[in-house]
Amino acid sequence: MKPLRIVAVGGVGLMLGPSSRHLAGPESPAKCLRVHDRGTQGGERPKFRNQWQEHGAELVPNFRELVGDGNFDGAVVCAGKNGGDLQIFREVVPCMKQMCDPGRKPFLLHLSTVSAGFVEAAETFCSNNGIAYANYPLTGGPLGAETAKMLILASGKRDLYDRLKPMCEKIGVLLPE
After folding, report:
1. What is the largest CA-CA distance in the chain?
2. What is the rounded end-to-end Cα distance, in angstroms, of the chain?
3. How many CB atoms lie within 10 A of CB 114?
4. Are 39 and 11 within 8 A, CB to CB?
5. Residue 136 and residue 133: Cα distance in Å, rounded?
6. Pairing with 168, which of 15, 129, 140, 158 sits 20 to 30 Å away (CA)?
7. Which residues are 36's β-sheet partners?
8. CA-to-CA distance for 172 and 125, rounded, in angstroms?
9. Are 31 and 4 a contacting pair, CB within 8 Å?
10. Contact 113, 82 (CB under 8 A)
11. Alpha carbon distance 160, 67 (integer Å)
């Protein structure tokens, strides 16, 4: 199976940052092409930036460059909680609609903890723009992220779950089916 080609928002944060290592190697189920980097300093960010670059990802300063030519399978967003991702969606989804080939069925995997109302609105917004949406919140904290033991609470459409499962199993633990 060909690896998923993804772009990421939140890649220099504590929860998604370690994924650069977990997704490394030629047999990986996913390859990250670009990571959004706001340039925030401190903490583990320099380490995660270096690890993503070693993974082969380009660090980009804005969402237009993140989406680029649209030649990828999906976007992973792990940047906030309780609706803090709203502005990200407002910018990323229209770029994806414009640049991604709808025949490829692009997805947006949202790894943030948000309300059920946010998930419903995001799913409708993405669907109306030709993007498949899944919200798989994470739990397990930075140690879980470092050790690939975060619990990933997956739900939603089965075909998208099946597509994302190999990647998710590299960065965390999915609940048994």
Report:
1. 40
2. 21
3. 19
4. no
5. 10
6. 129
7. 9, 60
8. 27
9. yes
10. yes
11. 20
* Amino acid at site 62: N
Exposed, middle or buried: residue 100 (CB in 10 Å: 0-12, 13-18, 19+)? buried
Provide the token pair at 128. Answer: 């109306």
Report how far residue 47's alpha carbon sits from residue 44's, in angstroms, rounded to the nearest whole number. 5
Distance CA 67, CA 138 (A): 24
What gap in Å lies between CA 165 and CA 114, rounded to an integer? 21
The residue to which tokens 């370690």 are assigned: 18
Amino acid found at 94: P
Q: Under DSSP, is residue 69 helix (H, G, I), strand (E, B) or coil?
A: coil
- pLDDT tens over the chain, length 177 residues: 799 999 999 988 889 999 999 999 999 999 999 999 988 888 889 999 999 999 999 999 999 999 999 999 999 999 876 667 888 999 999 999 999 998 888 999 999 988 889 999 999 999 999 999 999 999 999 999 999 999 999 988 999 999 999 999 999 999 766
- Which amino acid is located at 117 in the chain? G
